[in-house]
Amino acid sequence: MRTGKHGWTTAAVTVVCAVTVLAAPGTAFADPGPSPSPGTPGASSTAPAATPGKDLEAVRKKLDELYRAAASATDEYNAAEEKADKQSAEIVELAKKIVKGQEKLDGLKDRAGAAARSQYRTGGLPDEAKLMLSDDPEDFLDGTGRVVQGQRAAKGLLGEMTRTQEDLKAYAADASAQFEKLEANRKAKATARKKVEKQIKAAEKLESELEQEEKERLARLEREAQEKAQTAWLGSGILKDLDSGATEQGRKAVEYATAQVGKPYQWGAEGPKAYDCSGLTSQAWVAAGTAIPRTSQQQWKQLTRVDIEDMRPGDLIIYFDDASHVGMYIGDGSVVHAPRPGRSITIAGAGSMPILGVVRPDTGASAQE
Predict the structure, then answer these.
(1) CA 10, 15, 16, 18 torsion: positive or negative?
(2) Chain CA centroid to CA 295, Å
């Protein structure tokens, strides 16, 4: 699917470049993705070297920091890709308009040329002389009326040609602006890709320096930290207040998401073989019949927020202060999510990570018991 879209874009750019001489290109600026502030996961990327007798809890926290930074950069990458895809589609549509407009202008020019040639052939003597020399003055006057009509038609034709040329200039300017935005977002994608790969490489290096026994102890520490967080969350009494009912679409989204359990996490992926966290939630809701934003940060910004106490299956739980992770609530205090590189899609405690808030894709739909 992507190949066809990129092929269309290449063809569109060729058309755009051919007609941009009609108007000067507009100035465009890329919409920058969120950048980490000091003290957030994205602000640091240097992994500490593993040493004998190292503090595994410190290692666990560092790994968590690195993978969260990778998740944030993944959101930047996904956002830039989404914008680039949208701009490619807009360039394609503008190119189609330019082609149609040029065809229309060529047709108008042919008609204008034919009208000019006809007027030239019927020119010559002044109308007064033609009237005096005509065998049938009434017939001449009828002809004169037709000439006047023809002149009016020619004037209207020239006006339409002018409007078509102005449209072409506007289309060319829009296409140039969109092309500049497309190039800016391609660069943003490349920058975000480097960020993701840098963070993951640092995390993998840190993990590779651990002995097998240390890796096993580290895995236990991760599980214990998650269980502790989930126990504290459940201990707050939140579960008894939750609405267990789901909408029909919510059920479909949950069915899709849980069917992906066991598939690997892959940053930037939207299935069907692998997913990142927001790729899983967005595709689950597409399968349920509702399109939602691609990234966890945009899901947090654009979807309707609901109180945790009102959460129902199918709702999305946004995690961490920078909204860099998302999972889907499936009921009974659990969430299905794509955790991070090196992990598979799994079901975990909804409170096992710091919750920023909850959003609902199908606001207004009635829950079903």
Answers:
(1) positive
(2) 8
- What gap in Å lies between CA 190 and CA 81, rounded to an integer? 10
Spatial separation of the C-alpha atoms in residues 369 and 364, rounded to whole Å: 16
Number of helical (H) and strand (E) elements in the chain, helices listed first: 9, 6
Q: How far apart are CA 291 and CA 35, in angstroms?
A: 26
Q: Is the dihedral of CA 66, 72, 260, 6 positive or negative?
A: negative
Q: How far apart are CA 335 and CA 341, in angstroms?
A: 18
Q: Outline where 122-136 has alpha helix (H).
A: 127-133
Q: What is the DSSP string of 268-331?
A: T-BSSS-B-HHHHHHHHHHHTT----SSHHHHHHHSEEE-GGG--TT-EEEETTTT-EEEEEEE
Handedness of CA 338, 344, 349, 353 (dihedral sign): negative
CA dist., res. 238 & res. 236, Å (int): 6
The two tokens of residue 106 are 């060529």
CA distance 249 to 279: 18
| Span 235-258, pLDDT tens digits | 777 766 665 678 999 999 999 999
Sequence-ordered list of residues with C-beta below 8 angstroms from that of 118, at least 6 positions apart, any chain: 150
Q: What is the pTM of this model?
A: 0.53
Beta-strand pair 355-360/346-349? unpaired
Catalytic residues: 277, 325, 337
pLDDT digits (tens, 9 = 90+) for 252-294: 999 999 999 999 998 889 989 999 999 999 999 999 999 999 9
**What would you report as the CA-atom Rg of the chain, rounded to the nearest whole angstrom?**
32
**C-alpha span between 56 and 62 (Å, rounded):** 10
